[in-house]
Specification:
Heme Oxygenase, Chain A; mainly alpha; 217 residues
Length: 217
């Protein structure tokens, strides 16, 4: 990779690695977090993607950001379906929203509707990450927790048949992102912040679900 795609990737490598290695995520992927912890994580994602996809609807009218605001990436319907499966039909009055999630959502609301650089930064962190490891994560969680596919649809992109080719095209769009240098610099910093905001959610979830599941008898 060259250009801005390589630049933003290099700048966020440390934050990305730290987010992946958070204790909560490691425990979740090992099947050690109670199912309520997985359900709570799914609920936090709905809050985040609702804000980000609302911003995407606005950014489709922005020349620089419009190429990224692809409806095929939309995660909200899948998350709503997953939550209905995990919490039941009354999930909208049941799902918890963490303080860290509220801070993340407020950041998206405050900047991503008006700043194409901020929007692209958060879009890159969320969706490229989802496309890179989402299907494997979904399969792993389904196996570890005995979940039906209807509880992990968030991790599947049915409208994107070739994620690898899509990611290649996405990086090419990053390299042609038509923003002035100060805005590109701000976008890199915002992507770093996005990982920090995401990590805070993992930390809060780990505090709420501190104990590993007991081994099966």
């Amino acid at each position: 990779m060259t250009g801005f795609a390589a630049r933003i990737r290099r700048a966020t490598m440390v934050e990305h690695r730290e987010a992946e290695n958070r204790t909560f995520i490691s425990r979740l992927m090992a099947g050690k977090v109670p199912l309520a912890g997985f359900a709570a994580l799914t609920a936090q994602y709905l809050v985040i993607y609702t804000e980000l996809e609302a911003a995407a609807a606005v950014m489709r009218d922005n020349e620089a950001a419009a190429p990224f605001a692809d409806p095929a990436l939309s995660r909200v319907p899948s998350l709503e379906s997953d939550l209905a499966n995990l919490y039941g039909p009354d999930w909208r009055s049941t799902v918890p929203t963490l303080a860290s999630t509220q801070r993340y959502a407020e950041r998206l609301r405050s900047f991503c509707h008006t700043s194409p650089g901020h929007f692209v930064a958060h879009h890159y962190v969320r969706y490229l990450g989802d496309l890179s490891g989402g299907q494997l994560i979904g399969r792993t969680l389904s196996e570890k927790y005995g979940l039906d596919r209807s509880a992990t649809s968030f991790y599947r992109f049915d409208q994107i048949p070739d994620p690898r080719a899509y990611k290649t095209a996405y990086r090419a769009k990053l390299d042609t992102l038509a923003l002035p240098e100060p805005e590109l610099t701000a976008a890199v910093a915002e992507a770093q912040l996005a990982f920090t905001l995401n990590g805070a959610i993992f930390q809060e979830l780990g505090t709420a679900h501190p104990h590993d599941l007991a081994p099966a008898a």
